[in-house]
Each structure stands twice: as C-alpha cells, then as structure tokens.
Specification:
- The complex is a heterodimer of chains A (86) and B (303).
- Chain A is of the alpha+beta class and 86 residues long.
- Chain A has helices at residues 39-43, 69-73; strands at residues 25-29, 49-53, 56-59, 79-83.
- In chain A, the strands form 2 sheets. In chain A, strands 1-4 form a two-stranded antiparallel ribbon.
- In chain A, a hairpin with a 2-residue loop joins strand 2 and strand 3 (56-59).
- In chain B, 35% of the residues lie in helices and 16% in strands.
- Chain B has helices at residues 27-39, 51-56, 76-89, 104-109, 112-121, 171-176, 191-203, 217-220, 227-237, 263-267, 282-300, and strands at 43-47, 68-70, 97-103, 125-131, 157-158, 161-162, 182-187, 208-213, 243-246, 249-253.
- In chain B, the strands form 2 sheets. In chain B, strands 2-1-3-4-8-7-9-10 form an 8-stranded mixed beta sheet, with helices on both faces.
- The longest helix of chain B has 19 residues, at 282-300.
- The chains are: A alpha+beta (86), B alpha/beta (303).
- The interface between A and B is large, with 35 and 41 residues.
C-alpha cells in the first residue's frame, strides 16, 4: 500500500467490506403481502434493499447488517427477522 | 490539466456505497444516503471529522461515489468555500454544486466559526448538519446540540445530576440570523421531506443551511430497529420542530399530532433518558422537557 501526501481513495471501494458478517438477525422478505410502498428500500441505512419487480423487494445479504428497520417499518408486515445461525 | 467533473454512472442503487462501517441502524448513514440521492451525481461534497467521515472513508476505501474531500474537524465549511470559489475562478460553477457536511459537534461547536464565515461571505453552498445530538464518534460526549437532561459520558446522571444541564443550541436560528436565503430542519423519519428540501435548497443561489435529526442507536441507547420510530416521535412531540425559513421568515412547518403526544413516549424508548423514569423526582424533569416541547410548538405554530 503506497501512502501519498493527501490520501486518496477510489470511489465506492468500500464495497470490499462484506458487512453482512456483522448480522445477528436476518430479514426474510416473504414477498407475499407486499404492497410495493418501497419503505424498506428508502429506510435501509446500507442501501442494500433493491426492487426486483413491482411489489417484490429483496435484500443483499453481503452487506445487510440486520438492523431490522425494514421489518419494523414495513407497512404490510411482510418482512420477518429471524435469528441467524452461522 | 483539466479533469472532467462527471461522477460515475448510477450503477449502484445509492451514491453512498454499501460496505461502510456505520453501526447497525445508523440514522446518519441513512440521512447521508437520502441527501446524496436527492442531490444527484453532479455534486462535490466536503465533510468534517466525525462519525460520517470515519465510517465512510476507512482508508484505503471510500463509500462515496461522488467527489469527496475531508480535511479537518473545524473546516468543512471553509474547504467547501474554497471549492466553490475555485469552480467560479475556472468558470465551471455550472458543472457541479457544492455540499458541505458535518455532524452536530463539527457544526455547532468546533466548526461554528468556519460555518459562520461561509454564511457571511455568501458562498453558493448547501451546508448539511447531521444532528445526532452528541460526539458519537469519540464515545458519546455532550455537544452544543445535546438536549436537556440527556445522559452522555461527559454529562453523567447520578445523585447530583440529571445529565446535560444546558439547553440544545438553536443552531437553525443562528444560521438564519446571518440573513441567508434558506434554512431548514428535517428528520430521517420523513425521507420525502429531506429529498424535497435538498432539491429546493440546491435550486437557490447563496448559502443554505439544513439540519437533519439522525438517531444514533449506540449513543441514544435505543434499539437499532427503532431508529425511524425514535426520529418520528421527536417530531410528533414537538421536541424536534421541522420547519423552513426563507429569507428570515418561517414559511413551512410540519404540524405535531393532535391530541398532543406526551414527551414520555419519546423519552422512554431511549436509554439516555432512562434515569428520568427511575425516581419520582424525575417527573419534574420530564415536565421541564415537556415545557421545551410546548415552547417549540408555540414558537413555530406546530399545533
């Protein structure tokens, strides 16, 4: 690793950190009762919830830290938090 | 040598890339993501030292998908001023907007003079303060924006203390007193509101100040999944008034719920206020906090 005066890091390189390993609880997106409000995507602090198609959202477990905001705020209670076994 | 200012294409879902090392349920990460999402790719951002800077730029990595500069704790606004003037000198001010950022400590305490200078000189910059109400990065020390009776590591509660004995600094009013065109407060509980305010602010020429209430589960000792609920209750009780000040006049507010939500609802889900519920004397202190909320409701006409 070379250090220059004024350290420069490349954009978006933090994707190398797989923060999903921090997780204790895992969100399960049932995709059954979903009304497509998109709150899970909007409120995710990691920005790792994506829309596959209308009324179908999914989460990237590589980065999801399992905070549970998506499950708490889901307007149709379609997301469940389960204890993760590793 | 000229380099183009065009930021990378929106390949990832957000301009704040995942893999940042914010705590689970971080309100500040969410706020930054929403601000960047609303501002778009043609921006240059600066940041003061603080949680946001630390968790997004773990060297040699960076979460920012837009040009980003961090220099010191106190000079986010000064660095942004330099960037804005440089763009003007090169005749390229139409190519990118400048956004300066800071936490509540980097804004209201340490960076206040740099911010005041930026507002006074009239730079075309949007300053965003992510208000998590203490120095969270260094381990929850009280800042100028820590609310009354809040327990932090430097304002502990105990036999002779109820926690922070000073009131929260009215930072939006200080910014507005500079006679700037736009001042706004927002909360992570209302993402659409943040989006609208950032877009509106960026359409105005001149210095703009925006303060976003961002819960910190670690420092506030609340459950990570309740981040949004905590932020929402702060607004509904009147403890965090949401308003817009344009050219010195309050033009828009978010009304509190009717009937009024008591401040206990907000306080009881956070460990930093737990000491108020442990003894009967705490009731008097809660009453004082209720009075703060009532004053806010009256001042900004939130009822």
């Amino acid at each position: 690793m070379r250090l220059d005066l004024g350290a420069i890091a490349k954009a978006g390189t933090s994707k190398a950190n797989q923060t999903g390993s921090w997780r204790n609880y895992k969100p399960i997106f049932h995709q059954v009762k979903c009304i497509g409000c998109g709150l899970c995507k909007i409120y995710c602090p990691e920005g790792c919830v994506t829309m596959i198609e209308k009324k179908k959202y999914t989460v990237d477990y590589t980065y999801c830290k399992g905070c549970g905001i998506c499950a708490e705020e889901c307007s149709s209670s379609d997301i469940e938090m389960i204890v993760e076994e590793k | 040598m000229t380099t183009t200012l065009t930021a990378p294409k929106e390949q990832s879902c957000t301009l704040l890339a995942p893999g940042h090392t914010a705590c689970t349920g971080c309100g500040e990460a969410l706020a930054a993501k929403l601000v960047l999402g609303a501002a778009g790719t043609n921006i240059i951002v600066t940041d003061a030292t603080g949680c946001l800077e630390v968790f997004t730029t773990k060297f040699p990595q960076s979460s920012w998908e837009v040009p980003f500069i961090h220099s010191l704790f106190e000079n986010s606004a000064a660095v942004a001023s330099g960037v804005e003037v440089a763009l003007k000198a090169l005749g390229r001010q139409n190519e990118a907007k400048v956004i300066a950022q800071g936490g509540d400590g980097g804004t209201a305490d340490i960076g206040l003079q740099a911010l005041s200078g930026m507002l006074e000189r009239g730079h075309d910059i949007l300053y965003v303060c992510y208000d998590n109400e203490a120095y969270m990065n260094t381990g929850v020390q009280r800042s100028g924006l820590t609310p009354f009776d809040c327990m932090t590591t430097t304002s502990p509660c105990g036999e002779f203390s109820w926690g922070n004995k000073h009131n929260k600094k009215d930072m939006p009013s200080i910014a507005a007193a500079h006679g700037i065109p736009y001042v706004a407060t927002a909360s992570v509980a209302f993402p659409k509101d943040i989006e609208n305010k950032v877009k509106k602010a960026l359409s105005i020429t001149g210095p703009k100040y925006m303060q976003i209430h961002s819960p910190c589960p670690l420092g506030w000792r609340s459950k990570p999944q309740l981040t949004i609920q905590v932020a929402r209750l702060a607004v509904q009780t009147g403890l965090y008034p949401i308003f817009e000040i344009e050219n010195g006049k309050v033009t828009k507010v978010r009304k509190v719920t009717t009937p009024k939500t008591p401040v206990e609802e907000y306080l009881k889900i956070q460990g930093r206020f737990a000491h108020l519920f442990k003894s009967p004397k705490g009731k008097e202190e809660i009453q004082k906090i209720q009075e703060i909320a009532d004053r806010n409701i009256e001042k900004y006409g939130l009822a």
